[in-house]
Amino acid sequence: MKLLAGFLFSLCCWAAVDGTIINGTTGQPQGSVLITLVQPGQNGMQTIASTKSEPDGKFRIDKPYPPGPVLLQAIYEGVVYNQMIPPGSPTSGLNVKVYNSTKDPELIRNSQHMIVLEPSESGIQVSETFLFSNPWQQTYNDPVKGSAEFYVPRDVNGKIQVVVNTSGGMPVPREAEKTKEPNVYKIDYPVKPGETRFDIAYSLPPGDTFSGKNLSGENTYLVTPPSVTLTGEGIDDLGQEPQTQAHTYRLRAANFRVKIEGTGSLRNNSQSSAEDDTGQPQIAQAPARVYSKLPWVLGLTLGILTLGGVMLYRKGAV
Predict the structure, then answer these.
(1) Cβ neighbours of residue 232 under 8 Å, at least 6 residues apart?
(2) Is the pLDDT of residue 274 over 70?
(3) In this predicted structure, what is the pLDDT of residue 316?
(4) Nearest to residue 260, comparing CAs of 303, 207, 205?
């Protein structure tokens, strides 16, 4: 038993994890930040050790852990900031950034919101994407209002799925939280500096109409496969995206109802791309002649990414 214990102990890494917490908003070291060293495992994230940064921002964790990647989590003003430490990378002299939080919605008011409709004989698959680009050195965090609100028709089938993607981070499943307004949900997840994407998926019974509420303003778009068209008041037809031939429409009404003609899916294109490459959806560059419509082209590209991301997440959850 002692021999076995010694062998298992030898497999553990004994390297101090140390560094400095930097406040990216002020540019100064940040004290009193809770830092936790965790490691992914079969039973989820396993906590190895925790500490707090000193007044000069310095921290140090001396605790053995099994081989493999570990994650530093710094909690500041209610927001978790993650920094991955891959195997073989330095564990000393790390700089971990945190940011001051704000509830000012101006930080994320220029978000892009896209709704992809894929009707079939068995139902309508709806995939939504919110893209937030936060160029400021602050984190938007409002647990009461959330970072995004979206409307879901009352006849939704099954569970509403939400996945959050951040720059350099791993996809994070999130709950769609009900608000006081009927059929309106929110996503409570902080929007840190950089890009953050919320991917939402749900299904509806078969039908030839789709009704909803535009809660995001003028940067909201409807997208359908090439074989599906929409008609109705409050939408502007922006034409077809050159590569996928998907139809794109700008929403300009707070409440809308569109008639759906045809059936089809964008998923086959996403799956083919995944099989031909690394298993991840790819971003395709648009020709120069469509640069004047860059916002909706970007929205469509993100929609295709959403479809691929949600399918991968569902496959892993089965």
Answers:
(1) 256, 257, 258, 259
(2) no
(3) 40
(4) 207
Angle formed by the axes of helices 267-276 and 294-317, nearest 10°: 70
For residue 209, the tally of other CB atoms under 10 A from its CB is 11
Q: In this predicted structure, what is the pLDDT of residue 6?
A: 44
pLDDT of residue 73: 95
**Helix residue ranges per DSSP H, 187-293:** 267-276
Reduce the DSSP state of residue 203 to 3 states and report it: strand
Share of the chain above pLDDT 70, in %: 79
Identify the pLDDT of residue 75: 97
The average confidence (pLDDT) of the chain is: 83
Q: Please classify residue 309 by burial: count the beta carbons closer than 10 Å to its beta carbon, then call 0-12 exposed, 13-18 middle and 19+ buried.
A: buried
Q: What is the mean pLDDT of residues 143-158?
A: 94
- Confirm if 100 and 26 have CB atoms less than 8 A apart: yes
Q: Which two tokens stand for residue 233?
A: 């008041």
CA distance 106 to 128: 22
Cα–Cα distance, 141 to 131 (Å, whole number): 16
- pLDDT at residue 126 tops 60: yes
Q: Count Cβ atoms within 10 A of the Cβ of residue 215 and give its class: 0-12 exposed, 13-18 middle, 19 or more buried.
A: middle
Between CA 302 and CA 16 the distance in angstroms is 40
Residue 45 has which token pair? Answer: 């994230």
Give the C-alpha separation, 15 to 70, whole Å: 12
Tell me the C-alpha to C-alpha distance, in Å, between residue 128 and each of 25, 27, 39, 184, 219.
31, 36, 31, 14, 13
- The DSSP code sequence of 132-199 is EEE-SSSEE--TTT-SEEEE--TT-EEEEEEEEEETT---EEE--EE-SSTTEEEE---B-SEEEEEE
Percent of the chain surpassing pLDDT 90: 65
